[in-house]
Amino acid sequence: MVWLGFTTVLRPATPYAHATASGATESWGRQAVRGFGTSGLNPKVLLLFLALLPQFTDPTTGWPVAAQILLLGLVHLTSCAVVYTGVGTGARAVLRARPAAARIVSRVSGAVMITLGVALTVEQLI
After folding, report:
1. Rounded-to-10 torsion of CA 3, 8, 10, 11
2. Which ranges of the chain does DSSP label H, i.e. alpha helix?
3. Is the pTM for the entire model greater than 0.70?
């Protein structure tokens, strides 16, 4: 984490248009599929659903527990999609308009990674 932090501080990311190897801009749908695949392959999502959703089900209702969990999962998925789309769209607009802000955000993120990495290392040594 410290290494990633240092490389992020030294070479901060800058905004760019997503382009394929041929130079054409990727479609919104392709970007959405890539983002969904990245998030969907994260094992923390499954752990969150297994730990959190069952406590909001009621086996005495007419709905099967599996259907209740599926509905709760879809509500969560929809709300996350709305929030993340808004945050991503806003961040893209701000960071493209102000490239210096993008470098500052990258450097601050790198500094946070360095701080967390050092703190975790010190915690393990003490």
Report:
1. 130
2. 2-10, 28-40, 43-52, 65-97, 99-125
3. no
